């Protein structure tokens, strides 16, 4: 059932009021709570080495793509998206990668699966040398994907093909983060909270990262006074981009 926008706001306000009514928060403890949350954010935030490791993996996957498609007229580029692009990740976060081709013709699901199998074949050879582990080529998923973990860094990489939707959403979230730093901080804290409560896995029918980020954005858009403007204002009336959220 679809609800008008105002009904969504009323429902959110009602649920928020009911939840807050059950919390006995001592006003004098707010400063201490702020300190605790800031300390938690500092511990969760990635360090320079975590950025370096992920950029290096992107470089390596692009070298792999050139090795596989070196003589092709349309060699692919492996592009990052997801939490790394959003800058809402920590040391243990996955690295989402999309294998993108410059050919403007739309690609069928079977073609994407064939591409992943080519990369899977290459990665199986690399796995024998011990440089990667836990290789899975999952072609039955809604979005066919390869999962593989880099042995040296422990970073799990998820490869899909032409995930333009994921790339666009990631850059939109990154742009929203530039409006107010509290958005990025709250997103990282909420993602860690969700992981601690085992509700951060779309594979297990719970919440994925984008869902959590969207909840945080909605809260900051509807609080009084609002911290973030509505997506319609941020995207300047781009209906297709707004609907995709």
UniProtKB/TrEMBL annotation:
InterPro entries: MTPAP-like_central, NT_sf. Residues 37-177 form the Poly(A) RNA polymerase mitochondrial-like central palm domain. GO terms for molecular function: nucleotidyltransferase activity. One of its GO terms (biological process) is RNA 3'-end processing. Pfam families: MTPAP-like_central (PF22600). Signal peptide: none annotated. This is Poly(A) RNA polymerase mitochondrial-like central palm domain-containing protein.
């Amino acid at each position: 059932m679809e609800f008008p926008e105002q009904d969504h706001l009323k429902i959110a306000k009602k649920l928020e009021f009911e939840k807050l009514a059950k919390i006995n928060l001592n006003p004098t403890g707010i400063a201490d709570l702020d300190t605790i949350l800031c300390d938690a954010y500092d511990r969760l935030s990635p360090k320079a080495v975590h950025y370096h490791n992920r950029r290096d993996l992107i470089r390596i996957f692009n070298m792999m793509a050139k090795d596989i498609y070196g003589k092709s007229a349309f060699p692919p580029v492996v592009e990052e998206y997801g939490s790394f692009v959003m800058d809402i990740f920590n040391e243990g976060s996955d690295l989402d990668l999309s294998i993108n081709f410059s050919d403007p013709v739309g690609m069928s699901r079977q073609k994407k699966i064939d591409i992943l199998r080519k990369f899977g074949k290459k990665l199986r050879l690399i796995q024998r040398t011990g440089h990667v582990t836990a290789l899975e080529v999952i072609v039955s998923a809604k979005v066919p994907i390869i999962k593989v973990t880099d042995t040296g860094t422990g970073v799990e990489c998820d490869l899909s093909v032409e995930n333009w939707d994921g790339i666009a959403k990631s850059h939109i979230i990154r742009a929203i983060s530039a409006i107010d730093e509290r958005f990025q901080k709250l997103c990282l804290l909420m993602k860690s909270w969700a992981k601690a409560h085992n509700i951060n896995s779309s594979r297990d029918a719970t919440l994925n990262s984008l869902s959590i980020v969207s909840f945080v954005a909605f809260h900051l858009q509807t609080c009084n006074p609002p911290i973030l403007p509505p997506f319609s204002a941020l995207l300047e009336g781009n209906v297709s981009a707004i609907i995709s959220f």
